[in-house]
Amino acid sequence: MVSQFNRILFLLCILGLTQTTWANVSLPAFFSDNMVLQQNSELNIWGWGKPGENIVVSTSWNAQYNTKASNQGTWSVLVTTPTGSMTPYDISIKGYNEVLLKNVLIGEVWLCSGQSNMEWSANSKINNAEEEIKQASFPTIRFFSVEHRTALTQQIDLEGQWVECSPATMQNFSAIGYFFGRKLQQELKIPIGVINSSWGGTPAETWMPAEVFEHNEVISTAAKKLESVPWGPVEIARIYNAMIEPLSKFRIAGVLWYQGESNVGTAYAYKATMTALIKSWRKKWGVDFPFYYCQIAPYRYGKFMEGAELRDAQRKTLDVPQTGMVVTSDIGDTSDIHPRNKLDVGLRLANLALGQHYKIDDRVVSGPLYKDSQVQGRHILVYFDHAEGLNCKGDQLTHFEIAGEDGVYHPAEAKIKKDNSVEVQSDQVKRPVSVRFAWSNTATPNLFNGAGLPASCFHSN
């Protein structure tokens, strides 16, 4: 009698184990309740299952897809999403078990990345933080925060969770990401998903795939000069492998980037570094998405001009197609590397997206950018793009310098001409050959265009 009971118990255990083994359909963390999917797209939904397991993906916008898990235990389906709306959807993924994703929205998804100024939250003390937190009830804006992780090899999943925007969730999320998403939703009238994958104090090199360094001597040499720090990794690809690569199969509209403070020591290589980073990310996603970034703010770095050199490298990175840059020289604090005015940064990034990517109007979305200069006797005429309504906030223009053939720069007088050019001259330079503007770490110049956006620093050589 006892042996018969033991046989029955053994069979029940085997049956239970088999059922547990079958219940094997699972998904990466970024496929979850409350997520936002990119509208009007073909995108992969993928995950894991038992080899050979039949998988059925059903969406409540009336689409069904069938696939089978490979012998590696992976599966994927290409799902077509409708136009964004405030209607919540469900997605069912059914194999031996069923995973049900609830409260899914369709809209626009943006990835925020970089170092601490992108990571900075309302709880980290932004301007007007208490009031902004109170007002942050926007359930159709969704956040996904990627946990800090590093890896020696490229990963396929990461830690994080989609949440609705509320005072409780907004206060710990990227303030710039929140203000960007809020502005987009106000004008586009559709759900917005914002993914924040940032890590304070980290150089650009650790955000790039390792293969980028194999045949690029400039960025490889610069990467070798990075020194270890206690607050985060500096080794190439470590953060990319764990915090960016897993997202590369998740469809996004574009990227927002705020980084550079940790690269001022190798500013000479930053244009090459950022060009390689942008191209490598686009290659991984298979989409030439817009890439909008922030120029670093004025701050007292160790050397007199390394901050200006880094900012100018950022300006020159605009040569890469479908990029845009936010100038922050008017909202910084030279004694604090973390400007507290994150609202204007988020709004300027949003206006870049609305004007350049969504093209909803012809708004001016950039401050004046150096275009060309011409020597005319003892004067140099400087021409800018985005210069309509060029004006000076103050009694006279500041931070212009010119140099002769000896290469020594002297403070210069500058005035705005009727054609929105700037005429620059100095009594100390009889035969000028070059001009520069806002060329110091702490420069806070006062040249703006009619849209109230500040001019970027530049060096004409």
UniProtKB/TrEMBL annotation:
<dbReference type="InterPro" id="IPR036514">
    <property type="entry name" value="SGNH_hydro_sf"/>
</dbReference>
<keyword id="KW-0732">Signal</keyword>
<protein>
    <submittedName>
        <fullName>Sialate O-acetylesterase</fullName>
        <ecNumber>3.1.1.53</ecNumber>
    </submittedName>
</protein>
<dbReference type="InterPro" id="IPR039329">
    <property type="entry name" value="SIAE"/>
</dbReference>
<dbReference type="GO" id="GO:0005975">
    <property type="term" value="P:carbohydrate metabolic process"/>
</dbReference>
<dbReference type="GO" id="GO:0001681">
    <property type="term" value="F:sialate O-acetylesterase activity"/>
</dbReference>
<keyword id="KW-0378">Hydrolase</keyword>
<dbReference type="Pfam" id="PF03629">
    <property type="entry name" value="SASA"/>
</dbReference>
<feature type="domain" description="Sialate O-acetylesterase">
    <location>
        <begin position="108"/>
        <end position="351"/>
    </location>
</feature>
<dbReference type="InterPro" id="IPR005181">
    <property type="entry name" value="SASA"/>
</dbReference>
<feature type="signal peptide">
    <location>
        <begin position="1"/>
        <end position="23"/>
    </location>
</feature>
